[in-house]
Amino acid sequence: MIIPVKGYITSNDYAPIYRDWLGMTVVSPSDIVDELPDDGSDVTLEIASDGGEVDPATEICNALRSYQGNVTAKVVSNAYSAATIVAMGANKVQMAPGAKMMIHRASSDASGNSHEMDAASGMLQTTDSAIANIYAAKTGKPADDFLALMDKETWLDADDAIN
After folding, report:
1. Which of 53, 73, 84, 110 lies 20 to 30 Å from 159 when distance is taken between CA atoms?
2. Which of 30, 25, 31 is nearest to 52 (CA)?
3. Cα separation of 14 and 28, whole Å?
4. Positive or negative CA dihedral for 15, 121, 104, 85?
5. What SS3 class is residue 64?
6. What's phi and psi for 116, nearest 5 deg?
7. Measuring CA to CA, which residue among 47, 97, 52, 53 is closest to residue 72?
8. How does strand 100-103 pair with strand 154-156?
């Protein structure tokens, strides 16, 4: 079974707004989880996404990790930002010729006083650490290696991703 992971990754609550009101292609955790077969048969995710929100991507990643069957993530064109988190939930990750991945530090908008800015910075640092730990769990490499790559906004073709 093929499950598409196309467009912006967002929460279940916001998906209808993007999809119905703005006409955007989006994917939410329920879009993926509801498609997973009850019998645990193998699935392939076809990923073509510029990314989106970290928390829904993490929810999808963890649902895939918990799924009984084998999951293959095939990056058919691009898996940028939060889409790489989704890919990390698969048992196996493949990249089509010409496909790319991109990882970077988390970003957010914030406003307020110095205490609120400190809190926002702390949230971003925690998010960066959580993302790096997802990559580390998948690859067996240290999370600090991924934090360094995320610092640079790293673009990867298939060979770079393997390394």
Report:
1. 53
2. 25
3. 8
4. negative
5. helix
6. -70, -35
7. 47
8. antiparallel
Residues paired with residue 5 on neighbouring β-strands, in sequence order: 47
Are 71 and 90 contacting, i.e. CB atoms less than 8 angstroms apart? Answer: yes
Distance of CA 70 to CAs 65, 78, 115, 139, 147, Å? 9, 22, 45, 17, 28
Q: Length of the chain, please?
A: 163
pTM over 0.90? The answer is: yes
- Per residue in 81-131, pLDDT (tens digit) is 999 999 999 999 999 999 999 999 999 999 999 999 999 999 999 999 999
Contact 49, 24 (CB under 8 A): no
pLDDT digits (tens, 9 = 90+) for 1-32: 999 999 999 999 999 999 999 999 999 999 99
Phi/psi for 94 (5° steps) reads -120, 150
